[in-house]
Known about the structure:
Layout: E1 3-6, E2 9-16, E3 20-25, H1 35-44, E4 48-53, H2 71-84, E5 90-95, H3 97-108, E6 113-119, H4 131-144, H5 149-160, H6 169-176, H7 187-197, E7 213-217, H8 226-235, E8 240-243, H9 257-268
Parallel strand pairs: 3-4, 3-5, 5-6, 6-7, 7-8
Antiparallel strand pairs: 1-2, 2-4
Helix pairs in contact: 2-3, 4-5
Amino acid sequence: MPKLQGGDVTLHYEIDGQGAPAVHVCGLGSHSNDVLSANIRREVAERYQLLTVDNRGSGQTVVPDGHAATLEDMADDIAAVMDAHGMSGADVLGISMGGCIAMLLAVRHPEKVRRLVVAVSLAQAEPPPNRTEFLLDSIWAMRDRGVPRDLVSRFSAVILLSEDIFREGWLIDSLVNAPEDPLAQTRAGFDLQTAALENYDIREQIKGIRAPTLVMSSPDDMLVPPRFQDEIHALIPNAQMKRYPGGHVFMLLPMYFPQFIADVMGFWGE
């Protein structure tokens, strides 16, 4: 399994395919081998050499007990893995918190980002208390108290999916009853990543991004409301915007995933 050692952090990552270099940056709790990342890796690797890094606090990346990290650290981690594989520049996709990291990669290492796709993300984290914090904390409060996993999944579905998706009973059943992820984020990982989002505000910095940028948003997103996507679109010079039904994880849904992939690779190929 590909690893890169940096101080007391061991980064796990995956590289798939051949062709022009590309990077997928995972969101909060997501990792290179979860269902969404596996689908993205399979499709994108048909045309690109795709790098996917497990961010600190998720997947198989190893950090010491009590480790603290910033989103800037995570952006620098990706730059370091790119350097280790001779990727001087790449097309980049970041989803949710991964979009925050991807924008920081473009800010801190502009030469490494050719074209940037930022999906359901944000340029600033609102100070607590706020609804997003409440929703995420509620999920972990249920887990901490031993609430059955299917009930936690039901609550998560309400947060992550749009109202119309609940008419697709087969799809809701498959999501609620999906097998447990053997690499699911731990409580310590969640605390690390949410702490990294505290005081996050790069609104001024992203005004300097020069990489062509596509912002992907969903008007049905409850976790990261559309106004956050609109703000990114307004601040990054000449950014494009596309909107999708389905909610925060629209790209995970089988009826929207093909269009999502086509739009990502179509934008990269412009």
